[in-house]
Design a protein that fits this description.
InterPro entries: Cro/C1-type_HTH (IPR001387), Lambda_DNA-bd_dom_sf (IPR010982), Toxin_antidote_HigA (IPR013430). The protein has a domain at 11-85: lambda repressor-like DNA-binding domains (434 Repressor (Amino-terminal Domain)). It is built from 5 helices and 3 strands, in the order αααααβββ. The chain has helices at residues 11-23, 27-34, 38-45, 53-63, 67-85, and strands at residues 105-107, 110-113, 118-119. Helix 2 (27-34) crosses helix 3 and helix 4 packs across helix 5. The longest helix is centred in the middle third of the chain and has 19 residues, at 67-85.
């Protein structure tokens, strides 16, 4: 968990500094084991590409972690970057009319509880 005020780092930096370097892994060896092109790994390590779900699965297997670890790192990094860029001050909150039912509805085969915005 990040301490308040700390910005998340790119997952590629974490991969390089905390996983590959301590093991003495070259990009070529890591890429071969992951079943990806060396250029793809280089793009990730140099922060020009993010972690996809498929890459998270590969990294989790190779480094005995979880895909959620990698996806959460990417999500946190992306959200922080968005917060730094997006101006939210002029956006007004849409309030749900009180007359709308709060019960669960089904839209396109997904169960949605409007009041809580949960999809099941």
């Amino acid at each position: 968990m990040l301490k308040q005020g700390m910005k998340p780092v790119h997952p590629g930096q974490v991969l390089k500094n905390l996983y590959m370097e301590p093991l003495g892994l070259s990009q070529a060896d890591a890429a071969e084991n992951l079943g990806i092109a060396r250029k793809t790994l280089s793009m990730l390590l140099n922060e020009h590409q993010g972690i996809s779900a498929e890459m998270a699965l590969r990294l989790a297997k190779a480094f005995d972690t979880t895909p959620e670890l990698w996806m959460n790192m990417q999500r946190n990094y992306d959200l922080q970057n968005a917060k730094d860029k997006v101006k939210l001050g002029r956006i007004k909150i849409f309030r749900r009319p009180k007359k709308l039912p709060a019960e669960t509805v089904v839209l396109k085969g997904k169960t949605i509880t409007p009041a809580a915005n949960h999809v099941h």
